[in-house]
Amino acid sequence: MNIDWGAFASVVGVSLVATVGLVGLFTFGIVGLSKQQESARAGAYTAFAACAAAVAYGIYLIAG
Amino acid sequence: MEHLTLLIGVVIITALVFDFTNGFHDTANAMATTISTGALAPKAAVAMAAVLNLVGAFLSVQVAKTISGGIIDEKAGVKPEVIFAALIGAIVWNLVTWLAGLPSSSSHALFGGLIGATLVAVGSHGIHGNAIVMKILIPAVVSPLVAGVAAMLATRVTYRIGRDADPEATSKGYRAGQIASAALVSLAHGTSDAQKTMGVITLALVTGGMIAPHSDPPLWVILAAATAMGLGTYLGGWRIIRTMGKKLTDIRPPQGFAAQTAAATTILASSHLGFALSTTHVVSGAVTGTGFGRKGAVVRWGVVQRMALSWLITLPAAGLVAGGATLVALQGSWGVVLIGLLGLAVCAGAWLLSMRKPVDHTNVNDVEDIAGAAPEARPADAESFDAFTPDPAFTATIPAPQPQAPRKEAAL
C-alpha cells in the first residue's frame, strides 16, 4: 500500500494557512471599515479586494 | 434489448432519486451556520444553495468521468442491476440518517452502496482496496480534523483582531462574509456531488451499450443531475440543518464565517490536490472546531460522538443494504421490481415518520439554549424526532420494509 503522505501534508498546510489568512484579512477589513480614518478605510478595501481575489481563485479551482 | 432499456431507465431514475436525497441531506453543509446565526432567512438560504448547486453542477465533469474515483473496478462485470442495488442502499441510508437528523456523508453512502453491491455481485476483485484507504478512509479521518483546527484558529484570530471593534459596526461585514463563504461551499458541493450522479448514470449507459466507454456525460444527464440536486437542496434537510447549526455548538456570526471559510478552503485544497472528500465531514468538523475557538462556547460532546458514530457506520450500513438488495436484484426482473418496491416503501415510511414531528423552515432554529439557561423554553411541538431524542417507534417501524438488511437496525 502506497500512501501519499506528502499530498496529505500539503492539504493540511494549505487549508490551515489559507483559512487563517483569509479570515484574518477579512476581519481586518471589517474592523477597518468600522473606523472613521481615511487610511483605515483604504486598508479595509485593499483587504476586501485580496479576499475577492482569493474567492475568484477558488471558483477557478472549482471549475478546473 | 427492450428489457435492458427499461432497466437502464429504472437505474437512471433511481440515480436521480439518490441525487435528490443527496441534495436535501447536504443543504446543511452550506447553509446550517448561515441559517442558525440569522445571516439569511431559512427560505432564502436554501434557495441560494439550490441555485449555486445547480450552477456548480455545470462547471466541471472531471469527477464524473471516473465514477466512484476508481474505488470499484468498472470492468469487473458490474451490471445495471448492481448499480441499481447500490443506489437503493445509498438512498435508504440517506433517508434513515436524515430522519435521525444525523449529518452523515452522502458520498460515503454512495461509495458504501457501490462497494457492497460490487462485493456481492463480482467478489473482492471488483474492489480496489488501495483506493478505499487513500480516497475514503484516510480523508474521512483527516479532513474533519484539519477543518476543525483551521476553524478553531480562524475563530481565535477573528475574535482577536475584532476585539476592540464595535459589534454593531462589524455585524454587517460578518454577515457578508458568512454568505460569501457559504456560497463557495454550495458551489463546490454542486460541482463535486452532482458529478457523482452524472458518473453513475453515465456508467449505466455504458454498461447498457448506449454510449461508448469513457464518454463524457451527455448534456441531458448533466441537466437532469443538476436539476435533481437543486430541487433536493431547495427542499432543505431541516433536521440536519438543525443538528449542524444549533446542536453541535452555539454559533455566533464570526464563528459561522470562520467555519465556512475553513470548510471552503479545505474542500478546495483537497479536491485540487486530488482527494474527493466528504463535504459533510469537513463542515461538521469546522463547526465543531469553531466551538473550541470562542471563549465561553460549549461543544456538545454527546452530539459530536453520535455524529462520528454515524460516520463510521454509514459506509458499512449502506453497503449491507446494497449487498442484500444485490442478492435479490440479481434473481431476475422480479427481484429488481421487489427491491424497487421495498425502496419506495422505505421512502414513504421515512416521509410518514418525519410528518409526525416535522422540522421545517419555520421551526429549524427552535432548540433549547445550549448553555441550559432556559431548559423549558422550548415549545413541546418543536422537539424534533431525531437521534438525540430517542423514539422507540423509530426502531420499531423501520425494520419492516427492509427484511434483507437486518443488521442495519442493529447498528443503529
From TrEMBL, chain A:
Keywords: Membrane, Transmembrane, Transmembrane helix. The chain crosses the membrane at residues 6-31, 43-63. It comes from the Bacteria. This is Secreted protein. It comes from Streptantibioticus ferralitis. The lineage of its organism: Bacteria, Bacillati, Actinomycetota, Actinomycetes, Kitasatosporales.
Automatic annotation (TrEMBL), chain B:
Keywords: Membrane, Phosphate transport, Transmembrane, Transmembrane helix, Transport. Its main location: membrane. It is a multi-pass membrane protein. It is found in: Membrane. Residues 378-412 are annotated as: Disordered. The chain crosses the membrane at residues 40-61, 82-101, 107-124, 136-154, 219-238, 308-328, 334-353. The lineage of its organism: Bacteria, Bacillati, Actinomycetota, Actinomycetes, Kitasatosporales. The keyword Thylakoid does not apply. Belongs to the inorganic phosphate transporter (PiT) (TC 2.A.20) family. InterPro entries: Phos_transporter. The keyword Magnesium does not apply. This is Phosphate transporter.
